[in-house]
Amino acid sequence: MITVAVTGGIGSGKSTLAARWAQRGAVVVDSDRLAREVVAPGTTGLAAVAQSFGPEMLTPHGELDRAALAAVVFADVDARRRLEAIIHPRVRQAFADRRDAAAPDAVVVNDIPLLTALPAAAEFHLVVGVGAPAELRVPRLIARGLSEADARARIAAQISDADRSPLCDLWLVNDGPADLLSDRADRIWDDRLVPFARNVLAGERAPRRGPWLVPADPLWGVQALRLGARVSRAVGGARVDHIGSTAVPGLAAKDVLDLQLTAPDLATARGWAEALVRAGFPAVRGIDRDTPRPTGADPGPWHKVLHVNADPGRSLNLYVRVRESPGWRWALLFRDWLAADAGARADYLAVKEDAAARHVGDATAEGYTLAKEAWLIGAWDRSQRWADRAGWKPGPGLDISGEGPVPGRRESP
Asked: What family does the Swiss-Prot or TrEMBL record give for this protein (predicted)?
């Protein structure tokens, strides 16, 4: 199965999107409803709230006094965090229970308004965001019975679309008629979600066209960050790096992200395969090592494990390599050298353009890759000389902790 988070501010239309997918066959779980269920009378959640905030948070009938609790937590950040520490783990567990009860080929959709951090987004195979201008959201909320002042206050209390959208693999602007959002929902369901779930269940890769260079996309970095967080979470928090041409600012490339996952040893790299397949990254059989460099080097240390994308909407190569192995260092050095050396970057672009022109009609990128090999042989010595001059050492991997901001923004048709 795959899990899909649908997120957006109040009045954006996220629940409308989730409801449409429910009509198409998705298993939809409403996080707001779960949040109410986990503090219902008789639950451990309600008992924990009463213990933490006092018995005055309960009504005479033993139910949660939501107004009294809101008056406390909205005025005190520490109090709100205490409440979240009670509610959020229980909501996550309740969602997991419903997910685990779904069919193996299901699309499980979590309608979750408070998706505000990268680690939370990484728990899902895909995150779809819905946004709308405040001037459209306010009338929608008034139609639900809110006053204009209350509607604007609730919108202001949530994170902005600009902060939410970088967490999303798809971003829909819901500023048109209702049937337009339904049409978009249907296209995403048919073209992305159903094939994605089918590929994950079968452990198969999504189709990919042959080599075609596109101009550098400033969104490649934030896409790599989202996917890197997803990959790292699948294997327990290992280091992930954005490598390859899409990691070099300004360099045209195939629209295929390259990530490197760092393993402590080869057995661990191979042992991660099942978890990565479940997370949406099927393994590629028959490719188990890099080309040794320099020519004639011992091929033994150049082992790797290759995974790719089950998601038809985002092409990805995921290289699992052992920390400090020659292939691991070369991937990082090659990226940093190209980023720092304009001459090397221009030379490589010319080689890429020629290779792509000669192999643009191919069904795969194999011919394109082989056509670059002669240049890469010479690039090894050039990059090593640059590394010596620059005192190069591998830097840190992607910051997937969720502590820093997630740059970029994605809007999808």
From this structure: Belongs to the CoaE family.
